[in-house]
Design brief:
Layout: H1 11-76, H2 87-90, H3 93-102, E1 106-112, E2 118-123, H4 127-133, E3 141-148, E4 154-161, E5 167-170, E6 174-175, H5 184-192, E7 196-197, E8 201-202, E9 209-216, E10 223-229, H6 231-240, E11 247-251, E12 257-260, E13 267-269, E14 275-277, H7 286-292, E15 300-306, E16 309-320, E17 324-333, H8 334-337, H9 339-385, H10 400-426, H11 432-447, E18 451-458, E19 463-471, E20 474-476, H12 479-486
Antiparallel strand pairs: 1-2, 1-10, 2-3, 3-4, 4-5, 4-6, 7-9, 8-9, 9-10, 11-12, 11-17, 13-14, 15-16, 16-17, 18-19, 19-20
Helix pairs in contact: 1-6, 1-9, 9-10, 10-11
Length: 498
């Protein structure tokens, strides 16, 4: 509330405004500080999650590779790897079934022979596999063998086995152009002369992305290989997704996607009926399409704007055994990633607002309690300025300085009132002794002293001479008695100038 002067304000308004403003300012600062610190913690946690995902996938790939490579090596050094006959694996199906049952990551075990013969066994884990190969309902395994006849023609024979490895049906042999010696996994095994892993590629029959682990058998030119799909790692990414809008993807340098939270988007069917691995820009994700345009393949944090909202993320390079390098990309909308921090900030602002609402009446009443005595003293000062001494000052305050000011004003008002009363009463007094008596008595009362002495100045002698004294209820006119009581000298030279 403004006072009469537009440039000034009441103490009540000023005090209330000051305290409320301080509460709002400090509450806002604390809320913002909590939001910033919590955001920093969440962002750091996000970076740790990115690194953790990278580590998990690397370790999982390493673990898969190690276990599968042990299986491949065991088969290569079994009786199967000691002969050039494609019939040997068929006669040792129990060995393959045990290997497949012990490792769910295996999608196939295959053997390539130096003469171009080929053997492969596939477990039927899904209805998709059953439909792809048109397997009977009772079938648990699919075995393909390729033989070269005397005319040099290659024929493919497909057999179906149940869980007890009993043949339940077979297809008519058909001619095929497939030659394992032309496959990268076969060539890579012969060139390296040790266990090796191919780069990820699209499996022809299953239409899944995976790796092939190969090794040479003791028999010259015989190569044992195992196919491993990356479906399990896609499931790992699904469980590691931090927010609903987050995107996590693993891809190669050429942008071919290897692992994605939605397996159905990894493979794209072309217009000619062929299949290929999806690129980053072909996953159906707008934000991944946006990033693929100018994505730098180096480990770094990401902070960018897309569709009018801020995104945070990171790209990490991962190295797996076998000399291959992949990249893990993870991005999340800032609002989702920092939802906890935003919630804390909103709660802090709400608490600040509640505190302000509860504080306003308290501050208002406290300011009123402080300012009311001052306002009453101001009114008393105005009465004094108008020479209105009809009532004493009765203002009291819990503030010591204000209470002391009230006492002083009360004394001042009483003193001025008494002086004015004295002046009025002496104005018509003709008797000097009576005048001195009244002056002395009134002066003692006004000053609240124990006694008072009135001096008269004698101009000729240039001295002050006591003429009247009042102590308690006693009036003393005798000069000798006054001097004795007051213990003052008769003469005070130089006290007054002539």
């Amino acid at each position: 509330m403004k006072a009469k002067n537009n440039s000034t304000y009441t103490l009540h308004f000023t005090t209330s405004s000051l305290f409320i403003t301080l509460i709002i300012v400090f509450g806002g600062i604390l809320s913002w500080q909590n939001y910033k610190k919590t955001s920093e913690i969440l962002i750091e946690s996000g970076d740790q999650v990115f690194d953790q995902i990278n580590t998990e996938i690397t370790l999982e790939l390493g673990s898969i590779r190690k276990s599968v490579m042990q299986t491949v090596s065991f088969i290569a050094h079994s009786s199967v790897g000691q002969t050039n006959s494609v019939l040997a694996p068929t006669q040792s199906l129990n060995l393959f079934s045990i290997a497949l049952a012990n490792d769910s990551n295996l999608s196939a075990i295959q053997i390539g022979y130096p003469n171009g013969d080929f053997f492969i066994i596939r477990p039927i884990y899904s209805e998709h596999t059953r439909q792809t190969f048109k397997a009977p309902d009772a079938a648990n395994y699919i075995v393909d063998t390729i033989n070269i006849d005397e005319q040099g023609k290659r024929s493919l024979l497909r057999l179906f086995y149940n869980a007890r490895l009993q043949e339940i049906s077979r297809n008519t042999a058909i001619q095929t152009a497939y030659d394992p010696r032309e496959r990268p996994w076969y060539k890579q095994a012969l060139e390296s002369k040790q266990a090796t892993t191919t780069s990820p590629y699209l499996f022809h029959f299953s239409h899944k992305v995976g790796l092939t682990l190969t090794t040479q058998a003791p028999y010259q030119g015989l190569v044992v290989a195992a196919d491993v799909t990356l479906d399990q790692l896609s499931n790992t990414l699904q469980h590691r997704s931090t927010t609903p809008g987050s995107e996590i993807v693993v891809f190669q340098k050429n942008a071919d996607v290897l692992i994605y939270t939605d397996n159905s988007r990894l493979i794209i069917k072309a217009s000619d009926g062929s299949f290929k691995m999806a690129k980053l820009s072909e996953l159906g994700s707008d934000v991944l399409d946006f990033l693929s345009i100018d994505l730098q393949l180096e480990s770094k944090s990401l902070n960018f704007k897309f569709n009018e909202q801020s995104w945070l993320g990171a790209i990490r390079e991962m190295h797996i055994p076998g000399g291959h390098s992949f990249f893990v990309l993870m991005v999340s909308p800032e609002k989702e990633l920092l939802s906890s921090a935003i919630k804390i900030r909103d709660q802090s602002l709400l608490m600040t607002a509640i505190i302000i609402l509860l504080t306003i009446p308290i501050v208002w009443l406290f300011a009123r309690k402080v300012s009311s005595p001052l306002r009453r003293l101001a009114n008393e000062a105005e009465l004094i300025s108008n020479f209105d001494f009809s009532s004493p000052v009765k203002t009291h305050s819990m503030i010591a300085e204000v209470d002391a000011l009230s006492t002083a004003m009360n004394m001042m008002k009483s003193t001025i009132s008494q002086f004015l009363s004295l002046i009025h009463s002496l104005a018509g007094e003709q008797n000097l002794d009576t005048l001195l008596q009244r002056i002395t008595q009134q002066t003692m009362q006004i000053s609240e002293a124990d006694g008072a002495v009135t001096y008269l100045y004698k101009e000729k002698e240039n001295i002050l001479e006591p003429s009247f004294m009042h102590i308690g209820d006693e009036d003393i006119k005798s000069l000798k008695e006054i001097n004795r009581r007051a213990m003052l000298p008769h003469e005070i030279p130089g006290l007054l100038s002539p």
